[in-house]
């Protein structure tokens, strides 16, 4: 059963949230009759006050809750590094939780930490939350006085501060970069086509092709919805073998490594025959063979920026909502010529 909130009570009596809050706190500003009926309804429906929301003005835990969707992505490790460094510098502690791409786990974490444990959240949405478009837990957190700053995977419909990568223009400029190096058959391999950031990168790829005057060919696009890295190979191998390509852009490093292996197995050389560029500038790119050219998303900068925005909000009670865009750049290594 869904937990009754102040907002639910306000809706039931068609009054403001502030009126309900004052009635529950026995304020002299509210008439006895109104207080009585609101308190009675709250008791009958087992209303439990959110102490964090009720006393946020009076106290601060100096702690931030961080929710990331997965541990397996080096990019999120970089973001966390930026968050933690900035938080510590500004006198805040950090509690980190992993949603494991689960909507229910994300809801559970937010409910658990919204009891007065933390002052605000920094989070990147779980895959399930995005695919099912379920954002009520974010709305409730913000309405109950616990602010949220989203980073990387953000919910368009939620009015909160956001820090994002310029995914569309990053992909477009990567196509231009490859075209200037003489590539004409540029493929695009995505493992996140069902997520907003994946859509943006594909749109950017198309925009880049259009800009340099190359036709879009759907046969040069491979969407892999399988998240198991071992299974990437099964789809990448035939794609590389049977498609005429001279460059590949991938949405992540793991799939780029699989692509490079498949290119080598097909008897082609990197970067002489096929160039490879991957989004995210992590550990794999520096240890792959050859070393991989990447689109750096500056995860640490993203984390630091998100933490700054939240702490400024908590300290100054700043009500302006901002979206900060982190620009990317290409880190050139050996997988491009």
Question: What features would you describe in this structure?
Answer:
The structure is a single chain. The chain has helices at 6-13, 17-24, 32-44, 51-55, 74-89, 103-113, 127-132, 136-143, 167-180, 196-212, 229-242, 253-265, 283-287, 299-316, and strands at residues 63-68, 93-98, 120-123, 148-151, 161-165, 186-190, 221-223, 247-250, 275-279, 293-296, 323-326, 329-331. The protein is an alpha/beta fold and 337 residues long. Strands 2-1-3-4-5-11 form a six-stranded parallel beta sheet, sandwiched between helices. It has a six-stranded mixed beta sheet with strand order 7-6-8-9-10-12, sandwiched between helices. Helix 12 (253-265) links the parallel strand 8 (247-250) and strand 9. Helix 1 packs across helix 2, helix 2 (17-24) crosses helix 3 and helix 9 (167-180) runs parallel beside helix 10. The longest helix has 18 residues, at 299-316. The radius of gyration is 24 Å and the shape is elongated. The protein starts with 5 loop residues before the first helix and ends in a 6-residue tail after the last strand.
């Amino acid at each position: 059963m869904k937990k009754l909130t102040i907002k639910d009570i306000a809706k039931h009596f068609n009054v403001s949230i502030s009126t309900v809050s004052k009635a529950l706190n026995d304020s002299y500003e509210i008439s006895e009759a109104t207080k009585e009926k609101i308190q009675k309804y709250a008791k009958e429906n087992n209303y439990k006050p959110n102490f964090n929301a009720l006393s946020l003005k009076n106290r601060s835990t100096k702690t931030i809750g961080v929710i990331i969707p997965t541990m397996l992505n080096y990019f999120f490790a970089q973001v966390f590094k930026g968050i933690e460094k900035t938080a510590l510098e500004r006198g805040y502690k950090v509690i980190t939780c992993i949603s494991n791409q689960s909507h229910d786990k994300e809801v559970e974490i937010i409910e658990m930490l919204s009891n007065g444990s933390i002052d605000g959240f920094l989070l990147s949405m779980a895959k399930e939350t995005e695919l099912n478009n379920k954002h009520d837990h974010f709305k409730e957190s913000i309405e109950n006085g616990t602010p949220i700053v989203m980073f990387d995977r953000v919910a368009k419909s939620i009015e909160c501060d956001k820090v994002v990568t310029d995914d569309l223009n990053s992909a477009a400029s990567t196509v231009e970069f490859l075209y200037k190096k003489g590539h004409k058959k540029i493929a695009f391999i995505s493992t996140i086509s069902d997520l907003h950031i994946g859509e943006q990168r594909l749109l950017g790829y198309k925009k880049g092709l259009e800009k340099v005057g190359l036709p879009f060919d759907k046969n040069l696009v491979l969407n892999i919805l399988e998240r198991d890295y071992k299974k990437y190979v099964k789809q990448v191998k035939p794609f590389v073998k049977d498609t005429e390509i001279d460059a590949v852009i991938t949405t992540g490093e793991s799939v780029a490594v699989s692509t490079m292996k498949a290119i080598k197995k097909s008897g082609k050389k990197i970067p002489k025959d096929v160039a490879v560029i991957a989004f995210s500038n992590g550990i794999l790119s520096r240890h792959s063979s050859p070393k991989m050219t990447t689109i750096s998303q500056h995860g640490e900068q993203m984390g630091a920026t998100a933490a700054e925005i939240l702490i400024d909000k908590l300290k100054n009670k700043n009500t302006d909502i901002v979206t900060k865009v982190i620009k990317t750049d290409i880190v050139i290594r050996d997988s491009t010529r």
